[in-house]
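Sample intake sheet
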Amino acid sequence: MDVDAYREWLVLLDVQRGIIDRSQAKWAGFSDRQILHRLRSGRWQHVHQGVYATFTGALSREARLWAALLRVGEGAMLSHETAAEVHGLIDRAAGGTIHITVPPRRRPVQGGPIRGVVIHRSGQSGPQLPIAWKLPRTRIEDTVLDLIDAAPTFQAAYGWVFRAVSRQFTTTAMLRAALATRPRARYRGKLAVALGESDDGIHSGLELRYARDVERAHGLPSAQRQARREIGGKAHYRDNWYAEYRVCVELDGPAFHRDEQVWKDKRRDNLNLAQDGAETFRFGPLEVTELACESAAMVAAALARNGWKGIPHPCRRPGCKLRSRR
């Protein structure tokens, strides 16, 4: 091996954390006999079929990711929770399972299933660029949408949207653009509310769902929309203002808060507000879609404590939160 080739070999080992496949070893000049000798002598380790670690001892997480990618082969990208881990969208390793996406026309990996690896076939996800000398992974918007597709509920799905936007990994506009390129997407209707039809339409989408799925569906009185109030000599506008009962409902999109803990505290405070008779609630896309019944129950309780004599009713959803309160 000449000097230039040896230098490239060292760079390859450094980038891939000491992991190589058979074709790379052959490119570097190792014969089948030399590869076998290194494996038998313990200088190299066999990780997957045709994939080796050129060192002794335990493999790091990144080395295992490279080994899985090399085993799957052409077009392989880390995806789902594993891509979220590499992007930094989640704080720690996503467990032992490695998720990889390959193009839909890729043939099944020869040799059968790979232990600890889940392979997804999809033409909807694109690679994060630039990918040179980095772990190939789906771009952040596709990672979020893949996780949404796999989420068991919209509450879990919206958690990924909120995490990505609040941590400034992406924006609602970029997620909306990525969603538009996908012919198949889970929770498309609810995501349209969360992401808005346009940057200026986020609130209008939330207000529509609040009026339809929280108010009218549960028999609540109609609030004044974008009501102007004078507070301390300054004009303030309230998204939904029940003037007679002094109850206010504000609607926030996923980009409103930049701290995930604020979102968690908001859920906790909403429950406390309903019990303590406070007058203001803050709802986001989750509270006007997946949790619309729970939101209606909290608003109805606040209105009743402030003099509303109406009787809310359950909506058509199974297990509506207002069903037991009727």
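Comment: The two ends are 82 Å apart (CA to CA). The first strand starts at residue 19 and ends at 21.
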